[in-house]
Design goal:
Helices cover about 20% and strands about 40% of the residues. By secondary structure, the protein is α+β, with helices and mostly antiparallel strands. The radius of gyration is 15 Å and the shape is elongated.
């Protein structure tokens, strides 16, 4: 839920080619709410935070990061591509 009636969510993904292939999934929320400098210092410990920062990265042998920048909240998940693909059952 946005703090104002205006806002957008963008979900993008791309393949990174480093020593192996990785999926980089980015969730970006943008709104026009004034930023609260104390928000960055608040520790998020609810269910959503557990899923974003522990469950999803752990399940995919990946990592996640979260950042706040000028009215944006950005969460990124980086995981080995082969861990993100489903193998067809024979």
């Amino acid at each position: 839920m946005f703090a104002t009636s205006e806002g957008t969510i963008a979900v993008t993904w791309r393949i990174l080619r480093e020593n192996q292939k990785y999926l980089l999934l980015t969730w970006s929320e943008t709104d026009n709410a004034p930023s609260d400098p104390t928000d960055d210092k608040k520790q998020r410990t609810g269910f959503g935070s557990v899923v974003l920062f522990r469950v999803a990265p752990s399940a995919l042998d990946g990592t996640s990061v979260f950042a706040r920048e000028d009215g944006q909240r950005i969460w990124e998940l980086k995981a080995p591509l082969d861990r993100c693909l489903r193998e067809d059952e024979e």
